[in-house]
Every structure is written in structure tokens, then in C-alpha cells.
Amino acid sequence: MNKWHGARAHRAVATTVTAVALTLSLAACGGNSGDKGKDDNGSPSGQSSGPPAQGQESRSGGEASPSASQTLATANSGTFQFVVSSATRDSGGFLTINGTITNVTGQVQIAPNAWNGKESQVNRTGSSLAAMTLVDSAQKKRYYVLRDTDGYPLTTVNIPNFEPHASVSFFAQFPSPPSSTKQVQMDFPGLPPTTIAIS
What we know:
Blueprint: E1 7-8, E2 23-25, H1 26-29, E3 57-58, E4 73-76, E5 80-89, E6 94-103, H2 120-123, E7 133-136, E8 141-144, E9 167-175, E10 183-187, E11 194-197
Parallel strand pairs: 1-3
Antiparallel strand pairs: 2-8, 4-5, 5-6, 6-9, 7-8, 7-10, 10-11
């Protein structure tokens, strides 16, 4: 597995995650707008101090081992292919997405800045997947990538340049939708909306 697979926050937590704080009514956000439901600094209206899911290392480096035994969804931008291999709830109230990103071209590619999102607070992590959101159409809510107590996104960061046809594993952690929700839509810059079944 790629040693550059991104990082998780393995630090002591100060508070409990409030999943509702990182949800956003689709009616209020007007579709795909990422600016609603954020504070004056452009951050989602709440931070997570929750523990990361198993199988992921801290943001400072190390390896992780997301399962690649199945394919839940595939999305293509023309340059990158995203394959989601798992979308799993845990008892702590989190939903963790795992998968791989592949450069499908014959040239070296750089992770687009749009993947980082527009929040100044998370841009300090360098390249990341902080712009990823999940939409629960049935509940009319949008879920943002969780943040730790220092404001770092609980997703892959420090994404390296992609060599031709190279792949990098990724994860992203969100508040868990209610148990009645069986699928969500993944929204990410440059990709078409993609439906993911969750367990």
C-alpha cells in the first residue's frame, strides 16, 4: 500500500462529536453550495474531536489498509478515477469511506486545489479531500468531512503527485446518517454525483 496514504488524527479528544453540527439542510444550502452552514471563518458549523476509524494512521504519516475487496461505486473525472471500496458506520457515530484514486492518464498529475475545499482552516494541511461531502436525499441533509479538535480534516492529506496510472488509497470520515439511510450521494469537485450504499 502506498506509504503516502493519508493521515488520521490519533490524539486525545476533548469533546464528543455532534454529528448534527456538520449536517446541512439541502433546502437551506440550495443544492450543492458549500458555503451554507459554515461559520464566519468558512468552516463547517462544528468540529469533530472523535476518534478515527480503525485501519488509518495519523496525519503525520504511516500506512493504512482500507479494504479493496469490493467496489461500491466508481466515478471518473477524465484524469482521475475514484473507486469506493467500503462505506461503513461504526458505534461511535461515524461513517468512514475508503477507496482508491487512480491517475488514468499517461502523464504525472497533481491533486487539484479544489479537492482541498475553500476553508482557510483546513488548507494548512496541504492537499486533501476536505471538499468531499455526502448527501442524504431522504433526510435532506449534507454531511461534511469531520474535523479534529485542531481543525484538521479527518481525511487523506498530503496527497503526492500521481505518476502515470498510479493509485493512492484514501479515506474520509463523516457523521453517520441515521440507520434508516441505506445510501448517500458522494459529491466531490470534478466528479459526477455518485451513489454509495452504506452499511
